[in-house]
Amino acid sequence: MKAATSVGANYGEANDAESKRDFRHKIGICRKESKESKYWLRLIAVSEPALRDAAATLWQEAKELNLIFGAIRRKCDDP
User: Fold this and answer.
1) CB-based burial of residue 45 (10 Å sphere; 0-12 exposed, 13-18 middle, 19+ buried)?
2) What are phi and psi of 18, to 5 degrees?
3) How would you write the pLDDT of the chain (79 residues) with one tens digit per residue?
4) 1-4: Cβ within 8 A, 24+ apart
5) Which helix (H) or strand (E) element contains residue 49?
6) Do residues 31 and 77 lie in contact, with contact meaning Cβ atoms separated by under 8 Å?
7) Could you tell me the pTM of the whole model?
8) Which of 13, 39, 40 has the alpha carbon at shortest distance from 25?
C-alpha cells in the first residue's frame, strides 16, 4: 500500500517542482515507486493465490506507469 500511494504523492510533488531538474528527479522517484509496487504485487500473487488475478491486473497498471514515468524522465533530457 505504501509504495502504491507514494507514486501518487510523488507525482503531485513533481507537478509542483521548483525547476526542471527538480521535476526530473521527482518523476524518477515516481518511477522507482512504481517499480517497487510491481515487486510487492508479485509477492502478493505468489503468497496469496486467491489474489493472483487482482494482483496481476494491478501489476500491469504499475508496469504501464513505470513506462510512462520513464518516458517523461527521458523527455526531460531532450533539449
Assistant:
1) middle
2) -85, -15
3) 556 678 999 999 999 999 999 999 999 999 999 999 999 999 999 999 999 999 999 999 999 999 999 999 999 887 6
4) 3/33, 3/36, 3/37, 3/39, 3/40, 4/33, 4/37, 4/40, 4/58, 4/62
5) none
6) no
7) 0.86
8) 13
Written as one letter, the residue type at 61 is E
C-alpha cell at 1: 500500500
In contact, 10 and 29? CB cutoff 8 Å: yes
Distance CA 28, CA 57 (A): 23
Burial of residue 55 (CB within 10 Å: 0-12, 13-18, 19+) is buried
- φ/ψ (deg, to 5) at 70: -65, -40
